[in-house]
Each structure stands twice: as C-alpha cells, then as structure tokens.
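Hi there. Long-time user, first ticket. I'm pasting a complex I've been working with (about 791 residues overall). I'd like to know whether the download I got is complete or cut off, because the file seemed smaller than I expected. Thanks.
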Amino acid sequence: MKPKHQRLVLAVVALLALIGAGLLAASALREEASYFYTPATLAKAEVEPGKAIRLGGMVQNGSIKRDADGVTVRFIVQDRDATQQVVYRGITPDLFVEGSGVVADGRLDKNGLFVADGLLAKHDENYVPRELKDIDMTTAEHSQDTLAK
Amino acid sequence: MIAETGLAALWLAAALALLQAFAGLGSWKSASPALASLTRPVAVAQGLLCLIAFGCLLWMFAVTDLSVLLVASNSHVDKPMIFKIAGAWGNHEGSMLLWVTILTLAGAAIALFERRLDAQTLGATLFAQSLLALGFFAFLLFSSNPFERLSPAPPSGAGLNPLLQDIGLALHPPTLYIGYVGLSVAFSFAVAALLTGKVGPAFARAMRPWVLLAWISLTLGITAGSYWAYYELGWGGWWFWDPVENASLMPWLAATALLHSVAVLANRDALRAWTIMLALVAFAMSMAGTFLVRSGILTSVHAFAVDPERGAFILTLLLLYVGSALTLFALRIGSVKEGKQFSILSREGGIVVNNIFLSVILAIVLMGTMAPLVAESMGDKISVGPPYFNKATVPIGLLLMLALMVGPLLRWRSDDKARLKRLFAPAIAAVVAVIFLALTSPQAGFWPIVALMLSAGLGVASFLPLFGRNLLRTPLPIWGMVIAHFGLAVSVAGMAAESGWTTEKLYALRPGETVSVASWSVKLEDVAPVVGDNWVAIEGRLSAKRGGFVAQLKPQTRQFSNPEQQTSEAALLTRWDGQLYAVVAPISETDLSRWQVRLWWKPFVTLIWFGGGLIALGGLIALLGRIKLPARKQNENPWVPA
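Hi, the file is complete. Here it is re-exported in full:
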C-alpha cells in the first residue's frame, strides 16, 4: 500500500465509524428519548401506554395519598389547564411536598394512570428542574396559598 | 483587606498573562533567548499570584468573612471547618477561581519542568497557555469576581447545600479540575506544534507525561465522584448518565484515546495529525463540560451553583478557542508530513481500533447529552436518559474490551497471526465464566453475562504482555499498562455484577419487624432522633444478619438548619462480596408507626471503584517510569517488546 493510501484508508474507516455511531445514536435516540409533557400537553397528545415519558407540573394540594402498604404513594400533578393521576412506589424525594414542582419519569398504563419509576423534585431551595421554570409562573395563580413559606 | 489582596493578585496575574502572551509569541517568532528567559519566570509568577488569590479565598471561607458576598451567600458560621474550607469551591465563583488557579499552575509547571521541548515550541506553548488564561481571567474578573464585598455584612450567612457537606466535596472537585484543566497543557502543546510544524516523536514524548497526569486525575475524579453520588444521593445508583457526569466522561474518553495515540507518535512516528486533533478535542470537551456544568443549561441531579448568563460567557470562550484551534488545524495540518506506515495487525493497528471505538463512544455520549438542547431549539422538550446511553454505548464498550485483549500482545509495525495463539488462556477464562453464569443465574440477562465473560477474558489477557519477560527488568510503563487494563476488567466486572445481580426491596416496617433481601435478613430494631453539628436526624437502627454474621446499619434522614433542607444518609455495609445499602425515611409527617426502609444487596459493586483506582494507579506507575527514564538514560524506547 502506498503511504497516501494508508492515510486515506484510515480517514475513511474513521469517518465510516463515526457515521455508524451517528446512525446508531440517532436510532437509539428515536426509540429511547423520553418526551416531556405537562398534564395539559399530555391530555392533547396521544401517547401510547408503556412509552417512556417525563411528566412535569405542580403536586395538587391535598392530593397526596398513601396506600395501606406504606410504600405506594398516589398524587395528582396539575398545571393550569389539566390534571394527571400519578402512582409511585418508593421513597419520595426530600422536597416532594404538595404545591411544589415535580418531574416524574415513567409511563402511562392502559387506564391512563401515570406510573412513575422516578421522581425529581427540587433538591435545594434555589434549584428548580429546568422544565418547571415556565410552569411555576403559570400555576402560581392557582396555588397562591401554597407559595407562602 | 484579604479580599482586596486576592483581587489585586488576580489582576496582577492577568497582566502577567498578557506579558507572557507577548514574550511567548516573541520567543516563538524570533527564537530570542532573552524573550525565552523572560517567559518562564513570568509564567511561574503568574501561577504563584493565582495561588495567593486562591489562598485568600480559602482564608475568607475559613474565618467566614461575611462582608464578602460569596462567603455570605454560600457559607455559614455554624459549619464544620472542613466544609467551610471545601465550601470555597462549592460555588460558582470559587470553583472558577480554582479552575483558573490550576490553569496557571499548569502553565507554571510547563515553564519549570519542561526541558524536552525546543525553545521555539516551548515559547509557542506558553503563548497558547497564556491566551487560554487571559480568557478565563476576563471571565473571573468581569463576571465572576469571587472577592466582591457585601455591605452591610449579614450576621450569619446563607449556608452550603447539605448534599455538599461531605468529605467528597474536599476531594472530588479538585481532582476532577486538575484533570480537566491539565488537558489544557495538551491543547497548548498541540497548538504550538501546529504553529511551529514540529510534530514528531520528540514532541510526543514531551507531551505524554502531561497527558498522563491529567488523565490520572480525571480517572480519580470520576471514580471518587461516582462513589460520592452513590452513597450521598441515596438512590443506590453509581452512574446516572446525567449531563454533568457525561461532561466529565467525555474529556476522559478523549484523553484515553489521546494517551494511546501519543504512544504511537512517540514510538513509531505515526498518527501525527490524529494525535494533534485528539489533543484539541480533549480540552474542547473539558471546556464544554465546564460550560454544561456551570450554565445549568441541562437538567442535572448534580447541578449546584449554576448561572445561565455566565454560561453564555463560557460558551463564547469555548467557541473562540475551539474555533480558532480548529481553523489553525485546518490551515497548518497540510504542512505536517505523514507519519510512518504500519500494518493493521500491529500494535499501531490495535491502538487505531481503540481510538476509533473510544471516539465512537464519545460521539454517542455527546449526541445524547446535546440532544435535549437541539430538540428544545426546535420546540420539543425531551430528556435522554440511561436507556439511550446503555443501549448505544454498552455494545461498543464491550467490543473495545475485546480489542483490548489483542492489542497489547502485538508488536509494533507488523506482526503475524501466530501471536494470537496466546489468546488461548483468556478465551478459556471467558468460556468458563460464561458457562458458569449461564448455568447458575441465566436470569441476570444477556449484557451482564457477556460483560462478565469479557471481564474474565480481559482479566487474564491483561497480564499476557508480561509473559516471557524478566519481571524485574520490565519497564514501569509496561507494568502501568498491565495494571490499568486489569483495572478496567475489574471495574467492568463490578458494573456487570451490579446491574445483573442487584436485589432491591422496599418495605414499610414497624420497629421489631424482620425482612429479607437476597441472603440477608434485616431487622428494624428501633428509630431514634440524633443531633449533629448543624442538623437533626431520625436514625433507623437496623441489624443485618447473614449466616453467623451480624452487623448494625444506621441510615438517617437528616434535617439541616442552614439552609433548611432534608437529605437522606444511606448506610452501607461492605463485605468482600458486595455491599448492603439501606435507606430509611418517614412515611409521612403524620404516620410515625411505620418507617419506609429501602434495601439493596449489590454483589461485588465495590469492584467498580476499586477497578477505577487500579486504572489510575496504572497511570501513576507509567508516569513514574516516564519521569525517571530521562535520568537513567537507558532503553530509548521501553514500549518496544523485547
């Protein structure tokens, strides 16, 4: 092989590998990226049960209920226009309280219940999950009572 | 006075950086000995001034000088001393000052210790390093001044996020930053090589110890950070594919590729352009990581002290530096002559395969990390999590392990297939592992079993380069390579065991009840309040029993006072074959009759970090060999197999 050829072959192989990585990543992204919804956009979108999504909003006042088993918690996530029932089994995050923002990872079941397998709440008093920054403003009108610290 | 001293030191250092830029430029252009002899002391003085500024910051935090804005908003008088000091870099301004201090110290270290480079390339390197420093000085002084005064001074201070009040804060950010910023040296070397056109073995041998040093720190920083998140966040996970974690993984991937390609350049004078490119990419990834972490532009579980507006400043710097470096690369690379030839079945060929796989993983991680930003600019909100990253990176990572068994066995330039017969032993180990696992626990799933199989193979294969050598006369860099590769096998074995064989249980327990997880039976003895320096907590007292062995676990839910925040402190019981991980939390404010107890048994999980430590140790041993070598002046080229 001539010197020039080896350099060319290496460059082409590297390029092909990167294109392959790009395609692999793009297809994995299409399947695995979870889209972010608020209760209102979720109500409008037709999301198939079982697909991984993220749901963000405020935990409705008085909605947190615990099952008799002590480890399952049910609550309602709301934004200005809609609500969504959520069930979660596990220890809730430290700052998970009614009237506060929450982002839930999970999927819808066949009955339209959102089954969360992870909850992300604010983890310090200054930090708000980025997806919730816009929502806090709109729901503030609805949950004035809970904003007082 | 202290704050003003620190600020003055910073300004002086910035002025010296400007002087260094001119002197460096001059000594590259004119090769003037006068200018060259000016550059070195200026670089050292600049590093010392930054060290003084950083010392001032530490002092202010140690004495909790509340008339300083940064201290008042991030510290509190009632905090243990170690966290007061470590808290100096647990915030945006302080961490950027640490960043700049390390950057200038790296410049000073080049000026003091680099003796292998010729004067022109050294001048150009210090020129490039001073340009980097200037940008980040501007960033500190104009938008992130850590020494700003606050008048009137508040009485107590706002406090430090309790999640950060941990020994991890004292260790993890400094090591990670030495790694991130240490890569700036490789970047400056590459820029200098492009400017002078002197790309060759001598250049590669000069650059290699610097890359090794940065890579060791990055490895340690990532390993420590992973363990910290594992026990502090209380979720039982050790890697979340979170943007901030990816931000540290990407420079590591690039630096690992660079470490290998620079060996080819040093020993065989091949892969010239590619090595230069990797050096540029590695530091670009460090800056991108700093941007991601500092800007808070992506949702992260580790996002502390973020500020979007300053993110724009870092993004500008990033685009400026990376853009001009790539332009320089495009303009000058034509003048870099092509390196030597090699056959695909050779050490070089193996390293090329390693580099391609590492670059592909890097591209996948980069795409997944940036996808939410791209989607948002098109109006969609998406999040990309572990399912994507695992699916796309795990198969390639395992292919990389397969290649890793072969590469180190091959000779430079070309080798014959007969040498591959040595792979018989690792193949046996892999087959034994897979048969054993498939028979005993097929429920673990495909990937964990494949990963353990490859770990077993690599665990054996990593020692083959020592085969047939006189162990006493084997050069340190070979030992380093063997240990680091073995460390990777150990770490991957831990990951596979953790992901395939973890048992997780969640219970609501009354005191006195006993439950089981894996082969352990765990009893909730009691729940009691405890008080710490600046927190109160409820503490679960668990006794864990397996066979005749009994131990206590005391997980807590802590309520901190400044700032008001709850954290859960997991309790860990480490045995030789894994860890029992326990978290306890109240069910609700009203129901105090039962407690939520979450238990994990994670077999061999500690291997993950032990392996990470071995990888770093291997790097350290190789580095010692590289530093000692010029003094002993023995074999010119220790990587050539005898």
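A couple of notes from our side: Chain B touches chain A through 54 residues (CB under 8 Å). The first helix of chain B runs from residue 2 to 29.
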